[in-house]
Fold:
Amino acid sequence: MGVDQPPTLLPDPRCDWSRLDRAARDAAYDNNAAVPDSAAQAAARNAASAAYRVAHPEGLDIPYGAAPRAALDLFPAKDPGAPCLVFIHGGYWQRNSRDLFACFAEGPAAAGWSVAMPGYTLAPEASLTGIVAEIGQALDWLAAKGSAHGIAGPLILAGWSAGAQLAALHLSHPAVAAGLAISGVYELGPLRDTGLNDALKLTDAEVAGLSPLRLPVTAKPLAIAYGTAERPALVHDARAFHALRSTHHAPGPLIPVAGAEHFSILDELRRPGGVLVRAATDLAKGLCA
Structure:
């Protein structure tokens, strides 16, 4: 039987970062500009999510905290003991909302899972430190009160884009059994040189303490997925994060989704039997092995 080896890392596309002007640095993280039909994909996602919420209205808009966005949408399975995918949306911590991603409950629901989708306060109203704290509060709520809403199974914490960074940070939460990080940013330092920081206003302490690539490795299983057509900076972060975890013998696969870009990769979570649905299912199976 062969032994899995950490992937060979490609050169960091930000190696000449200091030589790039502001426009080039912004472009390194501009997923919308990199995907010509990103607006059409978002519009289709929003419409599908609105329809899904209409069809599943029972567990919507449940507060877990005092802030207006500190609420959960819950889609419990018939079996309260089924695994629950806790999905954190993206948008560089300053765009989007949980309701726009409801359609991605379809894939896990088809596998018999529950799904929980926490919202959070966006920057600049909240700092990244505050956003991280809200996700922890949502997980505390699920651990304490989820069973009263039909969610009593193991929590698999997933996130996309900015949500992947938030999921990686909370892998160590006692209520979380495993994680699925999709198309994330795991090193925050370069973001301070882009327009994204106009709202985030990242501090030195946040860059050091909230970049998963700079933190101690959590031993729980974490699958790390990225699309092979993503921005090179995100591909590099995913591969580097998996390599770091592999060095520390932390379990979890690296999942390159062939041909997927930053938005189409989520089709693999919405589609029953999609690559990301299978990845979550494998994580849950591993907990029982």
About this structure: Residues 165 and 185 are 6 Å apart (CA to CA). The chain is about 35% helix and 15% strand.
